[in-house]
Specification:
alpha/beta; Rossmann fold; two-stranded antiparallel ribbon; four-stranded parallel beta sheet; about 160 residues
Length: about 160
């Protein structure tokens, strides 16, 4: 979906207003949208939140989406394959270059889960894609850990500024 109107309200409800009931149907929708890239060997993991941000929000909305997708597709779900060891400032007002700079080293593979990613197809789930910097950092972390292939899926995509 394009991140505007009703789609934006849905994502913001899930992200900031405790509308966790949105995750189940949204995860099933994502599963249908990803059907042609999923294999039985695909492992599903969410974009991680730093523990400070997770404490404020009470949950990681990407985890809820990833879990719902994995449950619907019977794929392996690894909620903690990735981690954010450093807290990054909110990115809402950052431009493209600033987002990539801040996130270039912000996401790492959890060493306890590295084996689970090696030689696997990985599907990374997030709620919104703006510049792609977060998903790029997560993808690079998975590839450096030995993932065979990495795909990403998001519930909504921010429109590019023209």
């Amino acid at each position: 979906m394009i991140y505007q109107g009703t789609a934006r309200k849905l994502v913001l409800g899930l992200k900031h207003s405790d509308r966790t009931d949105i995750a189940g149907p949204a995860g099933r929708w994502l599963a249908q949208a990803c059907d042609d890239i999923l294999t039985p060997q695909t492992v599903v993991t969410p974009v991680p939140l730093h523990w400070v941000r997770k404490l404020r929000r009470k949950y990681n909305q990407a985890c809820l989406l990833a879990h719902a997708l994995a449950k619907h597709t019977n794929l392996t779900y690894i909620p903690n394959a990735l981690k954010r060891p450093a807290h990054t400032r909110a990115l809402e007002k950052a431009d493209f270059e600033e987002r990539y700079r801040r996130l270039s080293t912000a996401i790492e593979v959890n060493q306890r889960q590295k084996r689970a990613l090696m030689g696997k197809n990985v599907l990374i789930i997030d709620d919104v894609m703006t510049s792609g910097a977060t998903l790029h950092a997560a993808t690079q972390a998975c590839l450096s850990a030995g993932a065979l292939n990495v795909n990403v899926a998001v519930l909504a995509r921010a429109e590019k500024n023209r």
